[in-house]
Design goal:
This protein is of the alpha+beta class. It is globular and about 50 Å long. The chain starts with a strand and ends in a 7-residue tail after the last helix. The structure holds benzoic acid (BEZ). The site of benzoic acid has 10 residues, from helix 1.
Length: about 180
């Protein structure tokens, strides 16, 4: 990478920007869906009691909406350290309202060491409610992501369903 590069954000990047960027735009990528199927041993859980954070699952025909950031290449060093837990950089075509660009997205591939995969929605919600790591409660990750998606005018059934479950069960714990 020799100059500013677009980075597609679909998880913590869209609501936690502790990195400099030159531009930011609502954007989407094609053929991927967002799922809380990645374990977090660091930011939102521990190695013994992992939390759950989002990764991308290849799904032909499915668009995933988020926010793209134009960043200088040295910012990737900071992000590689921040997001190290099983994620890898992946080249991707990023679509804007008025065009497209080749960029990078972080993906926790199926089977990586922190991979958790699918589970019944109430089990995912219960795991999130009991998990916390060095960046805080797993619950705050879900609420922060849902809020940021709403602000971008993005609807995501998986995220909003989970938001509802964790919000409801804060007063009435899940079985
Ligand atoms: C993101 O918000 O795009 C992101 C998700 C997981 C790891 C790194 C970045």
């Amino acid at each position: 990478m020799t100059g500013p590069t677009w980075l597609f954000g679909y998880g913590s990047l869209i609501w936690k920007q502790d990195f400099p960027f030159l531009d930011a735009r609502r954007a989407h990528i094609k053929g991927w869906k967002r799922r809380f199927w990645q374990g977090s041993h660091d930011h939102r859980g521990t190695a013994e009691a992992p939390g759950r954070v989002v990764t991308l699952i290849e799904t032909p025909g499915e668009p995933c909406y988020g926010r793209a950031f134009l960043i200088d290449p040295d910012v990737f060093e900071h992000l590689d350290n921040r997001e190290v837990n099983g994620y890898e950089r992946h080249p991707v075509e990023i679509h804007f309202d008025d065009g497209q660009a080749t960029g990078i997205v972080y993906v926790g591939p199926v089977g990586n060491f922190a991979w958790l995969g699918d589970a019944p929605a109430d089990e995912i919600a219960a795991q999130i409610l009991r998990s916390a790591g060095r960046s805080g409660k797993n619950l705050d990750y879900v609420l922060g992501l849902a809020k940021a998606l709403r602000e971008l005018d993005v609807h995501d059934d998986h995220v909003f369903d989970l938001e509802q479950r964790v919000t409801k069960s804060r007063s009435a714990p899940l079985a």
